[in-house]
Here is the input.
Amino acid sequence: MSNYSTLLNNLLSFIPRYHFERIVNSFRADRYVKTLKCWNQFVTLLYAQASGKDTLREIVQGLEVNNTKLYHLGLPNVKRSTLAEANQNRNYRIYESLFYEILSRCKDLTPKHKFRFKNPLYSFDASTIDLCLSAFPWAKFRATKGAIKLHCLYNHSGDMPEFAVMTEANVSDITVAKSNLLIIPDSIYCLDRAYTDFELWASIDSQQSYFVTKMKKSIKYEVTGQHTKTLKKGILSDERIRLKNRKYKKELRLIRFYDDNTGEIIEFVTNNFKLAPYTIVLIYKTRWQIEIFFRWIKQNLKIKTFLGTSKNAVLTQVWVAMIYYLLLTYIKYQTKFKSSLLCLHRIVREALMSRLTLIDLLRATPVKIAEFKIKEFQYNFW
Here is the structure.
């Protein structure tokens, strides 16, 4: 265990510093900055995310309490006004670019999805983050409500976002999907019923990929034949259909499924004719993983209370939160940590400013933790 390096310092070692500085230089973000440079701003915001700080005052006071450990983080004395100004004016795209740099490293460690087929499996969805309209007038959603929307392509290999887009909440989900969804050949895209759009379906099909979604009752079609004769596991029918429109002319597959839990008959539509009908049902059920992801970041990361009211400050905080999520995922897979991501987050939060390494902490027994606390007290005392 190092006498000086804190867990936060160890956490920062996973950040590709060279690439970070290259991104900062491309935006010329540190020009004329004397104290709180981009790296210091990032360290401060990452500290706030990991420790669960809600306000600028909490962040500053938390750093002041640990001022003897800030030297090894390279942090100057952080002032509320300086941090608020940096969040408001420093381009949030710096941290968006860093997110994708870290994401590229995470992909090498992530396990595959749990299905037997080898096709990459993704889910695309969006979640709304509510804001107070009077404090965030730029995020107008309805007459008396403000919000932003986080759109994500979720990769089921590794359970992490493949990409993320943030927009005002009044931007259509379909519009974002059409303009941002990068379709990878031979992949499967699981879509909510809200993404029913024949042009989007045709675009996925033209890239030799597949989609799975729920069938809307308003869609008109004709049955052209039966696809599978052997039906089991709640499958009522598996038919070939053709839509009565000019935007999608190919045959599709319509699967009717009886859900024992709800007593509901659900219809699924897909352009995949290879997989078993019950596998198609399970693929759509797997889509709920992205809902769990949205719920997790909203409950455990600081993306519902914000440190600034400008659009730049809000997006900066959300992107740093997403980076922290990736760091936790990266650490979990690299260290082969067996417990949940939430458990890892709680461990990091409680020991963030302790003088020990991540490996020491994750391998520690209760006796070792007691020893760490004694040594920590001795270091602080002397």
User: Anything to note?
Assistant: The longest helix spans residues 311-335. Confidence is low (pLDDT under 50) at residues 377-382. Residues 210-286 form one domain.
